[in-house]
Amino acid sequence: MDSKRISFTTAIVSLAWLLIISFQFTDAQVTFSRDWNAGKRSMSVPECSIPLRSATSVCQMLINEMRAITNCELKSLLAGRGDDNESNSDVFFPPRTG
């Protein structure tokens, strides 16, 4: 019983010591800004930064392509379905019959 208490105490002290050491080497800064641009104290390399318009246009292109793929998939599902009697029913979850 006494050896369990000693090992438990040693484990707790070791864990506390590791936490104290890890907090000593940790550093962080929170910057509040109106947009996603870096703050005035950031270390930015101008040749590595992507213009915001370029990133926005790439994102918009990806969204448009995903919409087109989704529409094509939906059309193929509707075409392969065969019965157009229930046009308001859900495509992905057909109605239960029993």
Topology summary:
Blueprint: H1 2-24, H2 52-81
What would the principal axes of the Cα set say about the shape?
flat
Class from secondary-structure proportions: mainly alpha
What proportion of the residues form beta strands (DSSP E)? under 5%
Average pLDDT, all residues: 76
Q: Which segments are poorly predicted (pLDDT under 50) over 5 or more consecutive residues?
A: none
Distance between the termini: 63 Å
Q: Report the biggest beta sheet as strand number plus sense, adding barrel if it closes.
A: none
Helix content: 40-55%
Q: Supply the number of helical segments.
A: 2
Number of strands: 0
Question: What is the rounded Rg?
Answer: 29 Å
Q: What is the ordering of alpha helices and beta strands?
A: HH
Subcellular location: Secreted
Signal peptide: 1-28
GO molecular function, one term: hormone activity
Keywords: Hormone, Neuropeptide, Secreted, Signal
What does this structure look like?
The longest helix is centred in the last third of the chain and has 30 residues, at 52-81. The protein has a domain at 51-81. The chain has 98 residues and is an all-alpha fold. The radius of gyration is 29 Å and the shape is flat. The chain has two helices and no strands. The model has no long low-confidence stretch (mean pLDDT 76). The relative contact order is 0.04.
